[in-house]
C-alpha cells in the first residue's frame, strides 16, 4: 500500500511528534532539535480521527498542498489549515486509485493529512519526522517530490468510526481574537521598547524553524550576539534589526540573540497557523497560568478522544 | 516531580531543565517550587570538582590547510604569524566541551588561546563542509554536518560526529577534554 505523489505542493513533509528529550545529557548525540509537526495539536487530532495512535506519522502540507493517488482504499482525515473543497476534521474514505487534491489551502498555514495506518518510513532517533535543514528522517530527509511513493503502515485494528465532527471544539482552539500568550524571557526586561504593547504582522519569512515578525523595531539593551543559551520551539528571539523571530518546531537548540519571551506550549499551535500578513498580539502570563492553560487544553483533547472512542465502540462496523 | 523532567541541557554558564507540566498534578504551583528546589539542591551538590571518571579525553585528527582549511592563511595573516604557527597553537591547546548544540553533535570547545580568538566572518559561508574544524570568537569546534557558518575554517577531520543513518557516531559530551592532532586524515 502506497501513496503516490503526483504534485508535491510547496513544502510537504512527513511529520510526527518529533524527538523531544534529545537536546541534552540523555541524548547519544546531543543538540538534536525537537522537530515534528509545527502544529502538534492538529497532527494528533487527525490521527485520532482515523484510529491511529496520536504520534503516527502524518503529512504536513504548507500553504499549497500535494496531489496524491492512493493505491488502495484508506480512511483519511484533514485538520489544521482548511482545504475548502474537502471534509474538515472528519474521517472519509479515498477509494483505491482515487486522488486527493490538497492544492488549495484556504486558511491557516499547515494542513495535516492522517491516513489510517500512518506513513511508514524508518524511525531516525526514535521519530519519523523530517528534518529538512539537517536532511534526515521522513522520506530521505527531504520534502516530497513528484513520483515519490510513500509506504503506509497496516490499518489499525479498530472498528470504523462514524462520528460527529469535533469541528466546533477545534475552531475554539484556533481563535484568532485571543492574543498569543507568552511567559517572560531572560532579556525581556532589558528592552527599552515595551514589545508586549506593540502589534506585529507575521512576515512571509517563515519556515519550520521560525517566523520573523514585522513591526516597529524593538530596542533592547542586551547584546545582539551574547553568549549562546538554550532556545526552544516558542522562544522569541531579537536579532540586531529589532524584528523578533518566533522559533517553531525545527528550532536549533542554542542561540545567541536576546530572548524576549517564550510562547506558551498551549498556544504554539495557534501561532503556527497564522498566515503571513496577519496581525499578532502578545500577552504575558505567569508560569502558573501557562500550566493551567496547558492542563485545560489537555482536558479538552481528552474529552474529544473519549468521544471518538465511545462513538467508535457503539456505532462501529 | 523529578519524573516530569524531560531534558537537562547544560550550556556554558547555564543548565536548562525541561519539564512536562502535564506530568505534574494540576496544583502546579507547589510542584513547580519543589522542582526548583530539586534543581537547586542537585546543582549545589555538583559544586566543586566533578567525578573525574566521567571526563573523557578525545583526540581529533585534523588535516590543516589547503582545501580542508581555506581560512588558515587568512587567520595567519590576521595574527601576523605563519600557517605552521597557527597549526601549532591550535593543536597544542587542550579544550573543554562547554556546550553541545546549535547543530546535533556540535561541541563548543573552550580554551582557545587568546591569539586565535578572532571576530567571525562578516559574511557567513552558505555551506561549511561536514568535518570542518573552525574557530569563531572564543570557541573552536567541528561541524558535524554541512551547514551555513561564520567561523574561520582551519582544517578538517574524518571523525564522524553525527550520522543519522549509520552506526552511532563518536560524540562529544559537555566536560570532555579535546585535543587536535595535526596529520593526514
Shape, per Cα inertia axes of chain B: elongated
The fraction of residues assigned to DSSP E strands of chain B is: 25-35%
Biggest sheet statistics of chain B: 7 strands, mixed
Helix amount of chain B:
10-25%
Any overview of this molecule?
The complex is a heterodimer of chains A (317) and B (185). With 317 residues, chain A is an alpha+beta fold. Chain A is built from four helices and 19 strands. Chain A has helices at residues 40-49, 167-173, 268-272, 287-314, and strands at 2-7, 11-15, 58-62, 67-70, 74-80, 92-94, 99-101, 110-115, 149-151, 180-184, 200-206, 210-214, 229-230, 235-237, 245-247, 254-255, 259-263, 279-280, 282-284. Chain A has an eight-stranded mixed β-sheet with strand order 18-11-12-15-14-17-10-19. A five-stranded antiparallel β-sheet of chain A has the order 2-3-8-5-6, covered by helices on one side. In chain A, a hairpin with a 3-residue loop joins strand 11 (200-206) and strand 12. Chain A starts with a strand and ends with a helix. Mean pLDDT of chain A is 91; it is low at 313-317. In chain B, strand 1 (5-11) and strand 2 form a beta hairpin. In chain B, the strands form three sheets. In chain B, strands 5-4-11-3-10-7-8 form a seven-stranded mixed β-sheet, with helices on one face. A two-stranded antiparallel sheet of chain B has the order 1-2. Chain B has a two-stranded antiparallel sheet with strand order 6-9. Chain B has 185 residues and is an alpha+beta fold. The interface between A and B is large, with 38 and 38 residues.
Amino acid at each position: 500500500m502506497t501513496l503516490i505523489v503526483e504534485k508535491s505542493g510547496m513544502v510537504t513533509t512527513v511529520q510526527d511528534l518529533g524527538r523531544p528529550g534529545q537536546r541534552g545529557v540523555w541524548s547519544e548525540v546531543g543538540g538534536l532539535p525537537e522537530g515534528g509537526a509545527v502544529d502538534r495539536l492538529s497532527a494528533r487530532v487527525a490521527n485520532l480521527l482515523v484510529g491511529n495512535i496520536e504520534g503516527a506519522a502524518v503529512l504536513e502540507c504548507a500553504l499549497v498542498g500535494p496531489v496524491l493517488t492512493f493505491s488502495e482504499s484508506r480512511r483519511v482525515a484533514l485538520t489544521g489549515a482548511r482545504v475548502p473543497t474537502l471534509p474538515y476534521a472528519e474521517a472519509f474514505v479515498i477509494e483505491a486509485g482515487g486522488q486527493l487534491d490538497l492544492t488549495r489551502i484556504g486558511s491557516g498555514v499547515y494542513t495535516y493529512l492522517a491516513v489510517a495506518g500512518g506513513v511508514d518510513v524508518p524511525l531516525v532517533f526514535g521519530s519519523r519526522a523530517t528534518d529538512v535543514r539537517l536532511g534526515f528522517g521522513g522520506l530521505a530527509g527531504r520534502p516530497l517530490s513528484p513520483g515519490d511513493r510513500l509506504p503506509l503502515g497496516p490499518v489499525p485494528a479498530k472498528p470504523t468510526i462514524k462520528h460527529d465532527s469535533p469541528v466546533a471544539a477545534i475552531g475554539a482552539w484556533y481563535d484568532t481574537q485571543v492574543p498569543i500568550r507568552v511567559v517572560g524571557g531572560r532579556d525581556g526586561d532589558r528592552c527599552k521598547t515595551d514589545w508586549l504593547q506593540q502589534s506585529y504582522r507575521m512576515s512571509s519569512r517563515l519556515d519550520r524553524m521560525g517566523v520573523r515578525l514585522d513591526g516597529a523595531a524593538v530596542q533592547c539593551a542586551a547584546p545582539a550576539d551574547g553568549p549562546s543559551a538554550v532556545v526552544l520551539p516558542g522562544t522569541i528571539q531579537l536579532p540586531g534589526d529589532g524584528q523578533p523571530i518566533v522559533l517553531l518546531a525545527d528550532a536549533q537548540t542554542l542561540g545567541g540573540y536576546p530572548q524576549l519571551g517564550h510562547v506558551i506550549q498551549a498556544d504554539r499551535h495557534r501561532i503556527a497557523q497564522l498566515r503571513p500578513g496577519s496581525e499578532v498580539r502578545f500577552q504575558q502570563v505567569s508560569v502558573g497560568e501557562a500550566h493551567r492553560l496547558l492542563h485545560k487544553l489537555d482536558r479538552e483533547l481528552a474529552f474529544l478522544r473519549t468521544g471518538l472512542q465511545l462513538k467508535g465502540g457503539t456505532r462501529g462496523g | 516531580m523529578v519524573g516530569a523532567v524531560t531534558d537537562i541541557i547544560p550550556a556554558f554558564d547555564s543548565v536548562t531543565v525541561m519539564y512536562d507540566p502535564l506530568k505534574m498534578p494540576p496544583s502546579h504551583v507547589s510542584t513547580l517550587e519543589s522542582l526548583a528546589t530539586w534543581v537547586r539542591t542537585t546543582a549545589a551538590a555538583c559544586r566543586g570538582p566533578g567525578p573525574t571518571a566521567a571526563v573523557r579525553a578525545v583526540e581529533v585528527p585534523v588535516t590543516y590547510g589547503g582545501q580542508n582549511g581555506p581560512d588558515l592563511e587568512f587567520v595567519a595573516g590576521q595574527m601576523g604569524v605563519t600557517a605552521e604557527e597557527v597549526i601549532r597553537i591550535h593543536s597544542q591547546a587542550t579544550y573543554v566541551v562547554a556546550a553541545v548544540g546549535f547543530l546535533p553533535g556540535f561541541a563548543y570547545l573552550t580554551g582557545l588561546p587568546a591569539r586565535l580568538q578572532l571576530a567571525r566572518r562578516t559574511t557567513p559561508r552558505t555551506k561549511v563542509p561536514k568535518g570542518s574544524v573552525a574557530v569563531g570568537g572564543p570557541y573552536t569546534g567541528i561541524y558535524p554536518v554541512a551547514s551555513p557558518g561564520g567561523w574561520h575554517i582551519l582544517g578538517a577531520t574524518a571523525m564522524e560526529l553525527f550520522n543519522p543513518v549509520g552506526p552511532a557516531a563518536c560524540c562529544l559530551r559537555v566536560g570532555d577534554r579535546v585535543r587536535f592532532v595535526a596529520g593526514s586524515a
